[in-house]
Structures are given as C-alpha cells and as structure tokens.
C-alpha cells in the first residue's frame, strides 16, 4: 500500500535503520526495486525527478507505480518527488498521487545558483502548507550538494548548482538547520556533507576531509525529530566500472560513497539514502556485457532482463546493508 514518507521514516527511526530511495524512470527499474524489496521484505521509496516524468510521461509513471503497489500489496511504498524545483512542481506531484515531495529551495528554480536562506524558507514553507493539508510529507534541503575536493556540484548533474561553491555552502550548518525546520515544518531534511550527484564524486576514496560524516551527528543532535537525508549516495561500485570499461564504455577513475560510510551515517541519524547512479551503472554494465558476449541477440527483452537482474541484485544489497530486511 502507499504510505507517506513521514510514517515510513518514523518506523525506520524507531527501529534504527535507513531506507534507500531509488530513482525510477521506467518499468525495468521499478521491477528491479520491487523484486529486491519483496525478496527481503523491505519498505520501498520510489523517487521520480522532473526528468523522470518528462522521460516516461506523467500518466505512465503514475500507473507504473500503481501497478507496483497492486502487484506487491504486502509492501509499503512511498512515491516521492525528487528535487522539486518550485512549489508548482510539487503541486503537480500532489495531483499525480505522490505521497512525498522534495522542495529543493537550496537553488533558485531557474538559474541553478545558490538561493538565499529566506527564499528557501519561503518556498519550502509554502510547499509544507500545501502538502500537509493533503497528508503528504515534505523533504527540504539546506546547503548545496557538491564536492569538497573541487567545489563543483558534480558533472553530469541536471539538478545541481552551476559554478563554484564555497566551503561554507557545501556543509549544512546545524544551528541554521534547526531554525530552518522550525520555520518550515519539513518532515525530512537533505543535508550537504560533501556528496554530489552522478558518477564523479571523489577523485580518490573519500576521507574525513572530503566526506564530512561527523556533521551528521551534530545536525541530528540539533534536530532529533527530523529525518536526515543523504543525497548523492551511490557507492559507484568498482566492479561495475570495470565491466563497463571492459565492454567499450568510457568512465574515468572515480569513487563513490562506501556502503560502510552510509551504514555509519545511519547510526548517526540518516534515514533516507538517495541512489540513482548505481542503478544506472549496473544496468549499463549488464547490457554492454550481454551485447558484447551475444552479438547475435537482438530481442531487447534479453538486454532489459539482464539489466533488471543486475539492478535487482544491487538494490537487494542496499536494502540488506541499510537494515531494511524484514521491516516491511
Ligand atoms: O538527483 C538527481 C537524480 O540523479 C535524477 O537525475 O534529473 O537525470 O533524472 P535526472
Ligand atoms: P547518486 O547520483 O549518487 O545516485 O544520487 C542520487 C540522488 O541524490 C537523487 O536525488
Ligand atoms: Na529527494
Ligand atoms: Zn539528489
């Protein structure tokens, strides 16, 4: 059944686990996530970006998620709008039956430049007023996602800031986070601790300098009743990078957020962990491999099936590592 993010994450907080929020754009990704969740009896967050709605089309996205809920009646499913750029985008999500929306007011809607604190409070509070009136949860964001190595938002990222961000902008301030939650009433808060979107997060494995995990403890202490969200949380598995390269793909040396760091984040208070890139890498790797190994194959179902299996395995590993198994 459908469930709001607040209810789903309240349970996670009570039982000390974290929930992966996987981005979805098509049937195969939804299949993979639901199969993995069913196999280990895990609660589900499916999140769709504005780009996902554009790719699939709003009616398809809505009805594919409805189909997932119908096929897996035993699993709680939250449908979340990822990175809503304005209250208007969040209003569209409400009309589409989403049970959670992210109002990302950390950036100005059109310019992709860092927004003022007052702008962020204003758009987020308006979204909370609208969403809470119909029982839908809201995630806000304070601080800009981006690399502490370079000050850049992340390369192939469609939702991040353009230009260089200061060290200050790249780390969420705990006292400001507390004021922000008091002013807006958000259920969940995305925090900036050095992660960024996409495959190119770190040029070498992250350290305490480039991934500021200790911030989570400080923010959690200031905000015990707000669910903390880690964006840019793909681990960028080296095995999948190797497969993609072996079968003709071009991906430079890069590192993601290690699963053990996410597990530490969950112990420090993180409840929602956003993952898109890892599913992209697994599906692309599996398809490249099969195309190379079976050049006579031309039924696209063979490729989609391999991609779904690879994504399912990855999702299952994340559900289990984050403590979701048997929590549905
Ligand atoms: O936060 C960004 C997600 O990876 C969504 O990416 O805008 O390409 O759908 P997208
Ligand atoms: P990744 O690019 O690390 O998968 O992050 C996805 C994300 O944060 C979506 O909001
Ligand atoms: Na989100
Ligand atoms: Zn994100």
TrEMBL record:
Signal peptide as annotated in the record: none
Keywords in alphabetical order: Glycolysis, Lyase, Metal-binding, Zinc
Any one GO molecular function term: fructose-bisphosphate aldolase activity
UniProt catalytic activity: beta-D-fructose 1,6-bisphosphate = D-glyceraldehyde 3-phosphate + dihydroxyacetone phosphate
EC number assigned by the record: 4.1.2.13
Cofactor(s), names only, from the UniProt record: Zn(2+)
Co-factor: note: One is catalytic and the other provides a structural contribution.
Lyase listed as a keyword: yes
SUPFAM superfamilies assigned: Aldolase (SSF51569)
Pathway: Carbohydrate degradation; glycolysis; D-glyceraldehyde 3-phosphate and glycerone phosphate from D-glucose: step 4/4
A Pfam family matched in the record: F_bP_aldolase
InterPro entries reported in the protein's UniProt record: Aldolase_TIM, Class_II_FBP_aldolase, FBA_II, Fruct_bisP_Calv
Function (record text): Catalyzes the aldol condensation of dihydroxyacetone phosphate (DHAP or glycerone-phosphate) with glyceraldehyde 3-phosphate (G3P) to form fructose 1,6-bisphosphate (FBP) in gluconeogenesis and the reverse reaction in glycolysis.
Family of this protein: Belongs to the class II fructose-bisphosphate aldolase family.
Protein name: Fructose-1,6-bisphosphate aldolase
Lineage: Bacteria, Pseudomonadati, Pseudomonadota, Betaproteobacteria, Burkholderiales
């Amino acid at each position: 059944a459908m469930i709001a993010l607040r209810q789903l994450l309240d349970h996670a907080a009570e039982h000390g686990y974290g929930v992966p929020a996987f981005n979805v754009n098509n049937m195969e990704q939804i299949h993979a996530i639901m199969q993995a969740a069913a196999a280990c009896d895990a609660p589900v967050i499916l999140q769709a970006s504005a780009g996902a709605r554009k790719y699939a089309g709003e009616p398809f996205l809505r009805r594919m998620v409805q189909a997932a809920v119908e096929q897996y009646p035993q699993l709680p499913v939250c449908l979340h709008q990822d990175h809503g750029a304005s209250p208007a985008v969040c209003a569209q999500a409400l009309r589409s039956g989403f049970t959670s929306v992210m109002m990302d007011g950390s950036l100005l809607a059109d310019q992709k430049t860092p927004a003022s604190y007052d702008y962020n409070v204003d758009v987020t509070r308006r979204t909370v007023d609208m969403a809470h009136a119909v029982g839908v949860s809201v995630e806000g964001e304070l601080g800009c996602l981006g690399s502490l190595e370079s000050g850049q938002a992340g390369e192939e990222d469609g939702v991040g800031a353009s230009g260089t961000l200061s060290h200050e902008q790249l780390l969420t301030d705990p006292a400001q986070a507390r004021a922000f939650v008091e002013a807006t009433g958000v259920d969940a808060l995305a925090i900036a601790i050095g992660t960024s979107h996409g495959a190119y997060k770190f040029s070498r494995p992250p350290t305490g300098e480039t991934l500021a995990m200790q911030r989570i403890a400080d923010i959690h202490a200031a905000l015990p009743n707000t669910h903390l969200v880690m964006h840019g949380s793909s681990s960028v598995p080296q095995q999948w990078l190797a497969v993609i390269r072996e079968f003709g793909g071009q991906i430079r040396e890069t590192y993601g957020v290690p699963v053990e760091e996410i597990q530490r984040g969950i112990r420090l208070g993180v409840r929602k962990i956003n993952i898109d890139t890892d599913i992209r890498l697994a599906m692309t790797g599996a398809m490249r491999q099969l195309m190379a190994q079976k050049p006579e194959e031309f039924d696209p179902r063979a490729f989609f099936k391999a991609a779904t299996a690879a994504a399912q395995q990855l999702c299952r590993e994340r559900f289990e590592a984050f403590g979701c198994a048997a929590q549905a």
